[in-house]
């Protein structure tokens, strides 16, 4: 098992789904987990559950899309590992709509949550990482950022593509400080609505949807000492979907 003892990991959007799975695996590997969620009760519930298991966790509720909230919440907080997991449309359900029918408000909401949320959190923790000579930044991307899809997620795809490229640039800037930055691009996950499951399974060679544990396992590698010579990369975790071309 990877050892994250004596490390503090901030997982954004960790109150449910993929973020929760990452928080659980990191906690079981010895890290102290800062459980971020926009819903304070959700963050506290996860932190309480981990502490009940004998793990170390603290709830930290704030909206990653709000730069002032991020700055206030993370001011003076030591973060060794940051997993930028928040996605979709933040505080509201993501509206799957054709680009030509989208309102600018909806587009801004998606871009703010997915791209600016990453920018705000990463800028907040990078100076401390560089000063201490250690850091891991992991961004949760999506296959929607690597290919065109006709399912009404164009702003989401654009934001995820931007994140992957941002990571490449930042990785080069902070490499000399022993800080790594990588992206994990996820394929179809098991949060797909049940009515779509049968239709999408045929596109996945391994025959199943991805789980939070699948995402967490890749993140754990990148956060650990085993990932110390990996930076500026985008790792595809999609059950083999892209192999078919």
Q: Care to give the gist of this entry?
A:
The chain is an alpha/beta fold and 245 residues long.
Describe this structure in words.
- This protein has 7 helices and 7 strands.
- It has helices spanning 17-28, 40-52, 67-74, 104-132, 154-174, 194-201, 212-223; strands spanning 8-11, 32-37, 56-61, 81-84, 135-142, 179-186, 234-237.
- Strands 3-2-1-4-5-6-7 form a 7-stranded parallel sheet, with helices on both faces.
- The protein is an alpha/beta fold and 245 residues long.
- The model has no long low-confidence stretch (mean pLDDT 91).
- It has one domain (8-244): Rossmann fold.
- Helix 4 links the parallel strand 4 (81-84) and strand 5 (135-142).
Question: How many helices?
Answer: 7
Helix fraction bin? 40-55%
Shape: globular
The CATH fourth-level homologous superfamily: NAD(P)-binding Rossmann-like Domain
Question: What is the CATH domain class?
Answer: Alpha Beta
Whole-angstrom Rg: 17 Å
What is the straight-line distance between the termini?
Answer: 34 Å
Beta content comes to: 15-25%
CATH architecture: 3-Layer(aba) Sandwich
CATH topology description: Rossmann fold
Q: Count of DSSP E strands? A: 7
Poorly predicted ranges: none
């Amino acid at each position: 098992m990877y050892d994250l003892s004596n490390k503090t990991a901030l997982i954004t959007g960790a109150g449910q789904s993929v973020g929760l799975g990452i928080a659980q695996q990191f906690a079981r590997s010895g890290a102290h987990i800062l459980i971020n969620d926009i819903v304070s009760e959700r963050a506290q519930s996860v932190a309480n559950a981990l502490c009940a298991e004998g793990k170390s966790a603290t709830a930290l509720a704030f909206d990653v899309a709000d730069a002032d909230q991020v700055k206030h919440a993370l001011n003076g907080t030591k973060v060794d590992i940051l997993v930028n997991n928040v996605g979709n449309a933040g505080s509201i359900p993501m509206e799957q709509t054709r680009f030509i029918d989208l309102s600018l408000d909806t587009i801004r909401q998606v871009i703010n949550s997915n791209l600016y949320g990453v920018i705000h959190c990463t800028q907040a923790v990078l100076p401390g990482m560089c000063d201490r000579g250690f850091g891991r930044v992991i961004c949760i991307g999506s296959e929607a950022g690597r290919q065109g899809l006709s399912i009404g997620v164009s702003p989401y795809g654009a934001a995820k593509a931007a994140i992957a490229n941002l990571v490449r640039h930042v990785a080069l800037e902070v490499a000399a400080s022993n800080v790594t930055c990588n992206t994990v691009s996820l394929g179809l996950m098991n949060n797909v609505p049940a009515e779509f499951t049968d239709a999408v399974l045929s596109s996945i060679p391994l025959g199943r949807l991805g789980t939070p544990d699948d995402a967490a396992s890749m993140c754990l590698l990148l956060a650990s000492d085993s990932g110390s010579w990996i930076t500026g990369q985008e790792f595809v975790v999609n059950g083999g979907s892209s192999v078919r071309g």
